[in-house]
Write a structure and sequence with these properties.
Length: 234
């Protein structure tokens, strides 16, 4: 979505589309007419993205994919949303135009610039269904804003890890995005890496594994956390 498009309104959010066809694994195609001996085709499950069955959950879940610009948030979060069958929100779509203009010019945002944006995202969280959202959430204080004091809501963070040089290269190669490589130095100056006491945050390394390998890593973390918290297979 470009910065000029209107992002969806929080109130419009709905829960996961439980009417959607699941992964399709194990489904078969009905024969064209009864009584014929046509063998249904066997679906090629290697091309079907795996999904978790999240139709019955004890909690509301909000997964926030974090990291500096070009760390892979959008790529990973979209894949995660598909995996969970949760709505996906691109946090950057909620930056006011003034913030976008600054970032286009590689001018770092200040805490004040980010305050309204983070408040909007928090508001979104309080009113949403299950959700996968991207947000750079560079500082501990920003993550604290996104943590909700609601025991029924599991807010969990993924931090996509990679060094500045790698992200500078990715940002330079990425086309058609307002955030260029000139932002990386200030993003790393602002970055407060996850503290040991941030037990709701999970670090996923992204170097040398490509988008697919990273997505696999994210899915593995999410699966493990949700299995534990939801009591699956216990
Ligand atoms: N794990 C990865 N390894 C290598 N390149 C990646 C990885 N994740 C994303 N990319 C690439 O880096 C660029 C930035 O990814 P993107 O998902 O837009 O990041 P962000 O949303 O954090 O800015 C894209 O061109 C994307 O294809
Ligand atoms: O807090 C910030 O300074 C911004 O949120 C920034 O970290 C974000 O990364 C940019 O909006 C670029 O967007 P992408 O992260 O999608 O590249």
């Amino acid at each position: 979505m470009s910065a000029n498009d209107s992002p969806p309104k929080p109130a419009a959010l709905t829960g996961p589309d439980t009417t959607a066809t699941p992964s399709g694994v194990g489904t078969t195609t009905a024969p064209s007419s009864p009584g014929t001996t046509t063998t249904p085709p066997i679906p090629d499950t290697t091309t079907i993205p795996p999904t978790l069955d999240t139709t019955t959950l004890k909690h509301r879940w909000i997964w926030i994919v974090t990291g500096p610009t070009a760390s892979g948030k959008t790529s990973a979060a979209k894949a995660l949303a598909a995996y969970l069958n949760f709505p996906f929100i691109e946090g950057d779509d909620y930056h006011p135009p003034a913030n976008i203009a600054k970032m286009k010019d590689s001018i770092p945002l200040t805490d004040a610039d980010r305050a309204g944006w983070l408040a909007t995202l928090r508001d979104y969280e309080t009113r949403s269904s299950n959700l996968v959202m991207t947000c750079s959430a560079l500082k501990r204080a920003y993550r604290d804003i996104l943590r909700l004091d609601d025991v029924g809501v599991m807010v969990r963070f993924i931090f996509l890890d990679a060094p500045e040089e790698e992200l500078t290269r990715r940002a330079a190669e990425r086309k058609g995005h307002y955030a260029g490589p000139g932002l990386l130095k200030s993003q790393f100056e602002a970055l407060e890496r996850p503290g040991e006491d941030e037990g709701d945050l999970f670090v996923v390394g992204t170097v040398g594994r490509g988008v697919e390998g990273t997505v696999e890593g994210v899915r593995g973390v999410v699966r493990g956390v949700m299995r534990r918290e939801e009591g699956w297979g216990v």
